[in-house]
From TrEMBL:
Active site: 69, 147
PANTHER family the record matches: CATALASE (PTHR11465), CATALASE-2 (PTHR11465:SF23)
Cited InterPro entries: Catalase, Catalase_AS, Catalase_clade1/3, Catalase_core, Catalase_haem_BS, Catalase_immune_responsive, Catalase_sf
Record field: compositional bias (Polar residues): 22-37, 505-522
Descriptive protein name: Catalase
Broad EC category: oxidoreductase
Primary role: Decomposes hydrogen peroxide into water and oxygen; serves to protect cells from the toxic effects of hydrogen peroxide.
Family matches, as Gene3D superfamilies: Catalase core domain
GO CC term (a single one): cytoplasm
Catalytic activity, as annotated: 2 H2O2 = O2 + 2 H2O
Protein source organism: Metabacillus litoralis
Enzyme Commission designation: 1.11.1.6
Length: 534
């Protein structure tokens, strides 16, 4: 073999394989087992680049956890439009392109979640569930951010931080406390309808595939003439709906605290793709004095007999994430992310969420979170925004003058887009005030919901409420009973009777609805097995 042949063979031997480990600089890592040290016992040297890069990234591999909706699971899929809203072409109500053609498919990513608890909390806890859908439309992204339940605890966004503080663990003990929960709720009577749902079996969905979804807020649809209507969104699972009792949830939690994430992942892996139908309720954009509630009040349901559910499409989830952190954890949603033909209503919760959600993502993931593939629209992007943490590209148009990062300009900068549909220009008039809405009707729908429950659901609701309220201050009990009596005579009577016969012993510091949670500390000591030191 000649010298040249030998060198050629050596260079082939030294080529990296496709599965060779490298660092972030692309350097091959030849020893991933040992730091560089003075002798094999150490000490280590400061110039351990591979170690420093590896450990410093590890130190940062968790972005700040979501304050709410931390525990989540997600999947990819598509939305298929019907082209109609009920029996009419959808263009009567909206010009949004994704709805116009029958059979038109739009890629989606969905993140399901629980609300109050941390990233690895059990998926059996009593809590609303998040249901957030990112549509990658031809006009850019649309985020439909909602919950499994169709209403919410409050109707004004200024109360949101207080609500979450009350439902989160005690800032001293770091333990969830039902007395704090009911202290807030009994002094915020608009919460009672949601409390009725959350303390019933509807507060613990069996899994993510078999639960409803809702946009919760009131939005608007706008047609080509610029005419707007109020709209509510509802996701109905084709798999059916299943909920759990407290006892059933505790039995599942004892065996698997990831059961809902596992259920979703395995269903998609075996080709049992979950489906939901999207239905909307439509209402003219005015105050509707004939109703005993304000249609912008998120604590209320719109009666289906007056505002029928109109099917507009279906969603199928058919692909699991390839990497949980990259896709599910970094997925970032915002209620203000709307496309042409969709618009905001005056809903005060929606107005507050629209600032808060996107602001949270900029803090949590970074100023350039929309450049991440999971969040980026699947279309061209051209902005004059640049800089900020983790920017890896500039959103320029193909022929944009790179020196011009402002608008207007005649020197080759970006130009305003053309407005195709007539702009929606609702009339707004009134004094600037800090007041609650007029038609509050805080308990009527809670009574209607209670009467719609099956008997086992009523029994479970009363049992769960009694279990937690019995450990609360008497003043809190009295106010909650008064709300129940106002909602429905039977509801109030059974709650009062249950509390009169319930044991007052034990602590309110335990997961919501968990009847024997306060005994767990003693049980752990009594049943723990002695061991000698080692």
């Amino acid at each position: 073999m000649t010298k040249d042949q030998s060198n050629h063979e050596n260079s082939k031997t030294n080529e990296e394989r496709e599965d060779s480990l490298t660092n972030r600089q692309g350097h091959p890592v030849t020893n991933n087992q040992n730091m560089r040290t003075v002798g094999n016992r150490g000490p280590a040297t400061l110039e351990n680049y591979d170690f420093i890069e590896k450990i410093s990234h590890f130190d940062r591999e968790r972005v700040p956890e979501r304050v709410v909706h931390a525990r989540g699971a997600g999947a990819h899929g598509y939305f298929e439009a019907y082209g109609t809203a009920g029996n009419e072409h959808v263009s009567k109500y909206t010009r949004a392109k994704l709805f116009q053609e029958k059979g038109k498919r739009t890629p989606v990513f969905v993140r399901f979640s629980s609300v109050i608890h941390g990233g690895h909390s059990p998926e059996t806890l009593r809590d609303p569930r998040g249901f957030a859908v990112k549509f990658y439309t031809e006009d850019g992204n649309w985020d439909l951010v909602g919950n499994n339940l169709k209403i919410f605890f409050i109707r004004d966004a200024i109360k949101f931080p207080d609500m979450i503080h009350a439902f989160k663990p005690d800032p001293v003990t770091n333990i969830q406390d039902s007395e704090r929960f009911f202290d807030f709720c009994c002094n915020s009577p608009e919460t009672f309808h949601m409390v009725t749902f959350v303390y019933s079996p509807w507060g613990i969905p069996a899994n993510y595939r078999m639960m409803q979804g809702s946009g919760v807020n009131t939005y608007k649809w706008v047609n080509s003439d610029g005419e707007g209507v109020l709209v509510k969104y509802h996701w109905e699972p084709k798999q059916g709906i299943k909920n759990l009792t407290q006892k059933e949830a505790e039995e599942i939690q004892a065996k698997n605290f990831n059961h809902a994430t596992q259920d979703l992942y395995e269903a998609i892996e075996r080709g049992d793709y979950p489906e939901w139908e999207l239905l909307v309720q439509v209402m003219s954009d005015n105050e509707h004095p004939e109703l005993d509630f304000d249609p912008l009040d998120d604590t209320k349901l719109w009666p289906e007999d007056q505002f029928p559910w109109l099917p507009v499409g279906k969603m199928v989830l058919d692909r699991n994430p390839e990497d949980y952190f990259t896709e599910v954890e970094q997925a970032a949603f915002g209620t203000g992310v709307l496309v042409d033909g969709l618009d905001f209503s005056d809903d005060k919760m929606l107005q507050g969420r629209t600032f808060s959600y996107s602001d949270t993502q900029r803090y949590r993931v970074g100023a350039n979170y929309l450049q991440l593939p999971i969040n980026a629209p699947k279309k061209r992007v051209a902005t004059n925004q640049s800089g900020g943490q983790m920017q890896y590209k500039v959103d320029r148009a193909p022929n944009q003058n790179p020196h011009i990062n402002y608008e207007p300009s005649i020197l080759g900068g970006l130009k305003e887009a053309k407005q195709y549909g007539k702009e929606h220009t609702p009339k707004v008039e009134g004094n600037l005030v800090r007041e609650s809405i007029d038609r509050q009707s805080n308990t009527k729908q809670a009574g209607e919901t209670y009467r719609r429950f099956e008997q086992w659901e009523k029994d479970e609701l009363i049992s769960n409420l009694v279990g937690d309220l019995s450990k609360c201050d008497q003043r809190i009990q009295d106010k909650m009973v008064a709300l129940a009596e106002e909602a429905d005579e039977e509801y109030g009577r059974l709650l009062r009777e249950g509390l009169a016969h319930a044991s007052k012993e034990g602590s309110s510091q335990k997961p919501l609805g968990n009847k024997n949670g306060n005994q767990a500390t003693k049980t752990a000591v009594d049943k723990g097995h002695d061991a000698d030191p080692y």
